[in-house]
Amino acid sequence: MPTWPTWWDWELELSPHLFKRMADRDFNEIAVRRMLTLATGYRPDVIPDRWIIATRHRRTPWEVIVEPDATAQLLVVVTAYPVEE
Q1: How confident is the model over 50-73, as a mean pLDDT?
Q2: How far apart are CA 31 and CA 22, in angstroms?
Q3: Cα atoms found within 13 Å of the Cα of residue 72, Cβ hemisphere only
Q4: What whole-number distance in Å separates Cα of residue 41 and Cα of residue 74?
């Protein structure tokens, strides 16, 4: 299990973009929260200060993009998507 950064335990904020994608990709807020509890690792995104969280949803690999907001101490969930194997 990875050592998670301090922002991992911050309260979540869900972005408007994420809400748009929920309908498109057939998931909801509960699923996002569950995906984050099942996370197996993380790595930097190509966009500075964003992170890619590796997880699973419905027995398939998914990635959740998060952006820590240090000022508000919130972990903003930007989007989530299935990973093509």
Answers
A1: 97
A2: 10
A3: 9
A4: 19
